Task: structure prediction
Amino acid sequence: MVYRAAVIGCGKIGSEFSDDPKVKDIYTHIEAYRACPDTELVAVCDIDRKKLDSCGNKWSIQLRYTDYRKMIDEINPDIISICTPDPTHYPIIRSILESSDIKAVFAEKPLAGTVHEAEELVRVARQKQILLAVNYSRRYSTCFIQLKKALQSGSFGGVQAVSGYYTKGTLNNGTHWIDLARFLVGEIVNVHGYDVIREDGTDPSLDLRMEFAHGAVGYLHACDATKFSIFEMDIIGSRARVCIRDSGHSVEIYSVGESTYYSGYKSLIHDTVYAHCMNDMIVHAVEDITECIRTGKTPRCSGEDGLKAMTIASMARESAASNLVRIAGR
Result:
């Protein structure tokens, strides 16, 4: 079966990343629906008429709307992507879940503006039996799926520590890091947030100290986004080290071996490099969504996953404000 898809929001992640000559793989929702044999892109929507027409002309899409409600009423798509600015996610998704007969919503992060709103979206989607997926994109990377299997198998030994760096907001990019840590390492059971760099705005980048369910401790350090962008994660196992670099585009593995400098000492020896780990993740996400519609499986990044990442980020913000450790689930 071919599922009919529509995209709300014709900005960068909806369409415009495809205009960047440096982007070589598929990075937008529109391209992903075009590339997946199980989906047909039938309509696009944006309140900016110029942006909408630019997108429609580029992809030869005839059905263009400035009102998503009208689009849904007239074409009744099976899958809808939400690629609009963050503050609009909750009201648009809430309206879609309440008023439409769709099969799936594929939302950009964060799922909503508050944990309460995200909880409501997850609850309504479950009640209406609508699949809700969130684009924490690294979950859909073949490279990271294989890495998760290796970590779970114990081939890298038990995880001792996790650390990383990020920019651009605890709720924004911070939840990307939190979600990847949950995906690869395991559940985060408590968190303490520290406002070290003291950014302005509604979503400052906090430093986080986290404890995982199996006992490992993680540290996430915020950096100044006005200087550069960064997203890195370092996982130290008892038999190997995993270094996620360049926003996840490359992964380096170091294995325990005999020191090249001192007799009788063990050290971490550079072993393997995996490149192009971020290629076509959004295509894999769309493929995963269509498979889940057919089979009833849970998507690789569900609404519940999006909610948990938001919850941990929110607890970190509360902790930074109160200088108290926040316990997950309390």
User: Anything to note?
Assistant: DSSP finds nine helices and 15 strands in the chain. The radius of gyration is 21 Å. The domain at 3-137+281-302 is CATH 3.40.50.720 (Rossmann fold). Residues 303-322 form the longest helix (20 residues).
